[in-house]
Write a structure and sequence with these properties.
Strand order of the largest sheet: 1-2
Structural class: mainly alpha
Number of strands: 4
Shape: globular
Strand content: under 5%
Order of helices and strands: EEHHHEHHHHHHHHHHHHEH
Helix content: 55-70%
Number of helices: 16
């Protein structure tokens, strides 16, 4: 069990793991010990024992309603812990384990690179949206520099797909799967309404599996495992290398440099948007598995126009 930067090993002593997980979901601040007992069938004494064990490890939410600001240092440290946790959880998705064991057909791996192309291509859209709705001149400058570095990187993923056997026309006319659209649209909404949240989100989408050097090396290994040409992903790897050099995961620190604190309400909103984006990644990965595993689906996905009806 991962909480922040801490890892906990769960040991079974007669009970089923699913029963523990079912109970844990009611530790949401909306249920009393007795209500949890009534719902799950676990005795109130055992429920209280679990709650106390969580409290001893500082795993329960602690709220200070009088807090109007959060120190910048504390905010940044907590965002770092949370993005590290969620990045790791995203990496546990069945997409990755299924590719490692070759449970999925090779089209699923091709689909991963195809949707990565759409993901990278969307950068100019959501970054420019963030710029257009940003009211802070310093933050707008940071985002403008970010856009200048990111707006034309899609060709790297496109050339990798060409190396894998698709034509340039097929790639550029491809339509994202719905999980990818959901991710893009969610990030647009965050960019439109919450600049601080968007800057926090860069720490998640610039640091996830395929956007790290280790992740890029894993993709190259999987490509060969699935029978694609050696070094076919070299252009895509160069995109990752450029991002690492540019330190795009440091945009939030740059934006908050010189500020002692963050208004609590802004911090809460940013964290909620960051958490939503984590779940968008889950849908993104789900969409790749579901669409590209289906032998009846067109690959790449086609735009459906009126004459397709």
């Amino acid at each position: 069990m991962i909480v922040g930067d801490q890892h906990f090993e769960l040991q079974q002593h007669g009970a089923e793991l699913k029963d523990f997980l079912n109970l844990k979901r009611y530790l949401d601040g909306r249920h009393t010990v007795q209500q949890i007992s009534d719902i799950t069938g676990v005795s109130p004494e055992d429920v209280l024992g679990i709650v106390n064990a969580f409290a001893e490890q500082s795993l329960l939410r602690e709220e200070d309603t009088s807090l109007e600001t959060i120190s910048t240092d504390a905010f940044l440290k907590q965002i770092d812990k949370s993005t590290a946790m969620w990045t790791e959880q995203i990496g546990y998705h069945r997409l990755w384990s299924g590719l490692e064991t070759q449970e999925y057909r090779k089209e699923v791996f091709l689909g991963l690179i195809m949707e990565t192309y759409h993901y990278i291509k969307s950068a100019s859209d959501h970054v420019s949206t963030a710029i257009a709705h940003c009211s802070d001149p310093h933050w707008k400058k940071i985002l403008s520099e970010y856009l200048a570095e990111e707006y034309d990187h899609a060709w790297m993923a496109r050339d990798s797909l060409i190396n894998m056997g698709l034509s340039k026309e097929e790639i550029e006319n491809a339509h994202p799967v719905i999980g990818t659209w959901s991710w893009i649209n969610n990030l647009r909404e965050i960019a439109r309404g919450d600049t601080l949240g968007y800057l926090a989100c860069t720490k998640l989408f610039e640091a996830r599996g395929t956007e790290t050097l280790e992740g890029a090396q894993t993709l190259q290994r999987l490509a060969e495992l699935y029978g694609f040409p050696k070094d076919c992903l070299k252009p895509l790897v160069s995109h990752v290398e450029e991002d690492v050099k540019a330190n795009h995961t440091g945009l939030l620190e740059e934006a908050l440099e010189g500020r002692d604190s963050v208004p609590a309400w802004q911090a809460h909103r940013a964290v909620n948007n960051l958490h939503d984006l984590k779940h968008s990644f889950d849908q993104y990965n789900d969409g790749i598995v579901l669409y590209y595993s289906d032998i009846s689906n067109y690959i790449p996905r086609l735009t459906v126009d009126y004459f397709s009806l």
